[in-house]
Amino acid sequence: MALITKAARGTQDVLPSQSHNHRFIENTLLEIADEFGFKEIRTPVFEHTELFTRSVGDTTDVVQKEMYTFNDKGGRSITLRPEGTAGAARAFLEHGLFNEPLPQKVCYLTSCYRYEKPQAGRLREFHQFGVECFGTASPAADAEVISLANEVFGFLGVEDIHLEINSIGCPECRKNYHTALKDYFESKKGDLCGTCLERLEKNPMRILDCKSPICSKIAEDAPIVIDYLCDDCADHFKKVQEYLDEMMIPYSINPQIVRGLDYYTRTVFEFVSDSIGAQGTVCGGGRYDGLMEELGGSHVPSLGFGMGIERLMLLLESQGIKLPEPKRCDLYVAPIGDKASLKAASLVQALRQSGVAAQFDVAGRSVKAQMKYANKLGARFTVVIGDDDIEKGVVTVKNMDDGETVEIAIDEFDEEFLELTLQQSAQDLQDAVANGDNIDLKSFLGGLM
Ligand code: ATP
Ligand code: MG
Questions:
Q1: Residue minimizing CA distance to atom 20 of ligand 1
Q2: Of 126, 270, 272, 273, which is best to mutate to test ligand 1, by the most ligand atoms within 8 angstroms of its C-beta?
Q3: If 0-12 CB within 10 Å is exposed, 13-18 middle and 19+ buried, where does residue 377 land?
Q4: In this structure, which residue's CA is closest to atom 7 in ligand 1?
Q5: Residues 82, 114: contact at Cβ < 8 Å?
Q6: Could you tell me which residues are beta bridge partners of residue 282?
Q7: pLDDT at position 441, please?
Q8: What distance in Å separates the CA atoms of residue 168 and residue 237, rounded to the nearest whole number?
Q9: Ligand with minimal distance to 309 CA
Q10: What's the pLDDT tens digit per position in 276-334?
Q11: On the chain, which terminus has fewer CB atoms closer than 10 Å, C or N?
């Protein structure tokens, strides 16, 4: 094959053989968020560029190197969202959600775009599950947001993941810290990369986040922000820890975490794994008490996190965590001849309306080829319909698991078949109990119809 082109570098297709895993993860994330009271928000893929330069910050890697920015036909500068928080915050302000009872808790599943060097766990189009809790400064909210991410990993049975937290304080206490950082990096000026020299003037904390090995090495001995917290920020950080302790969520304090986006204040955190290589941060987040004002709104202390779906999938894979199998075909109808094909079409239509995953031959194949196809689909039951079956008004349904057959009247096929599958499912359940299998009843029942 000579294809005219392939998928763009750093993008991924999710093929039908994999998409059920994504759907399961996405449903799980949204369900957990729902339990915590976070409602889904959907915002556009692209925004005006200044939304990100102002919020993410123009000295960050994301804004300086990674954004997909272009002028549209009207000459406006547009950027594909590199992250989810800025758009959600803009929508919160633009639609006056601050007038609703606070906190407003929102979540989203979105694609994000960053022009990065593609490698394992680092793509140019990736997906984030994010939550944002708008309108509370309480450390209880920090603990709740962290506990939501923790719940996700717990629910999915992920083991090798640890929570690291830090506080980067408020603009007040950061003034002193910036002075200390400037003094320190001034003395190493000769070795810093060009970007960091610029950061030294504008935003010295960004140097701590530089990916260049020399700058990272220098940053290791830099003053740490926790030593510069004002009393209020120190107290807030202490209380976050008290909540985490009370909820028995294990964590460690990592004073090196500053996160890559400028809007963060006070609590920052990461869930990190050693199982998926260099890109080990599966979830990152924190508080951003000043963001809404930065965007032209009033003071709305808030926080949230972003979890990388592709990294989460890598993590599940690396730990051998099996996700539920996709729903099988319940019934495959194999007609012989034109008349039977018409009957098959109306049979599966009635069954589908009753919630049965039914299929029939739409390729005009021989019975043998159809049965092969039904086998590949993993059909639980099959039925072959010939012209004389239609005349007799009954067909024989075969259970593909044990080979048993049952006669069903064509006229009441949908009702009788439903009864049959329910019996079969009850039998499956009894067998599973008898075998002492571990049954997740919710997903078992959910998988039936
Ligand atoms: P990193 O340290 O990998 O550069 P980051 O600090 O830029 O991550 P955030 O902006 O906080 O990450 O995004 C939150 C999460 O989104 C990350 O923890 C990660 O799981 C995911 N993520 C970020 N960038 C990418 C990417 N290029 N490809 C895949 N996932 C990503
Ligand atoms: Mg990054």
A1: 308
A2: 126
A3: middle
A4: 260
A5: yes
A6: none
A7: 54
A8: 10
A9: 1
A10: 998 899 999 999 999 999 999 999 999 999 999 999 999 999 999 999 998 889 999 99
A11: N
Ligand nearest to the CA of 116: 1
What residue has token string 């701590």? Answer: 208
State in Å, rounded, how far the first CA of the chain is from the last one. 40
CA 57 to ligand 1 center in whole angstroms: 16
**What token pair was written down for 113?**
């775009």
What is the pLDDT, as a whole number, of residue 444? 54
Q: Whose CA is nearest to atom 11 of ligand 1?
A: 284
Query: Tens digits of per-residue pLDDT, 144-164?
Result: 999 999 999 999 999 999 999
Cα–ligand 1 centroid distance for 308 (angstroms):
6
pLDDT at 429 over 80: no
Give the tens place of pLDDT for each residue, 235-275: 999 999 999 999 999 999 999 898 888 899 999 999 999 99
- The set of protein residues with a Cβ atom below 6 angstroms from ligand 1 is 83, 114, 116, 121-123, 126, 128, 260-261, 279, 281-284, 306, 308, 310-311
pLDDT value of residue 350: 93
- Tens of pLDDT, residue by residue over 324-372, are 998 889 999 999 999 999 999 999 999 999 999 999 999 999 999 999 9
Could you tell me if 51 and 295 are in contact, meaning their C-beta atoms sit under 8 angstroms apart? yes
CA–CA separation, 143 vs 244, rounded Å?
Answer: 6
- pLDDT greater than 70 at residue 438: no
Cα-to-centroid distance, 431 and ligand 1 (Å): 45
Pocket probe for ligand 1: among 11, 129, 161, 279, the residue whose CB has the most ligand atoms within 8 Å is 279
For residues 58-72, average pLDDT: 94
Average pLDDT for 373-401: 94
Residue identifier of the C-alpha nearest atom 2 of ligand 1 = 281
Ligand nearest to the Cα of 270, by number: 1
Rounded CA separation 101/216 (Å): 43
Write the DSSP assignment of 184-251 as a string of letters: HHHTTGGGS-HHHHHHHHH-GGGGGG--SHHHHHHHHTSPPGGGG--HHHHHHHHHHHHHHHHTT---
Roughly what angle, to the nearest 10 degrees, separates helices 338-353 and 413-434?
60
- Rounded to the nearest whole angstrom, what is the distance from the C-alpha of residue 122 to the centroid of ligand 2? 8
- What share of the chain in percent tops pLDDT 90? 83
| Helix runs in 378-440, H state only | 387-392, 413-434
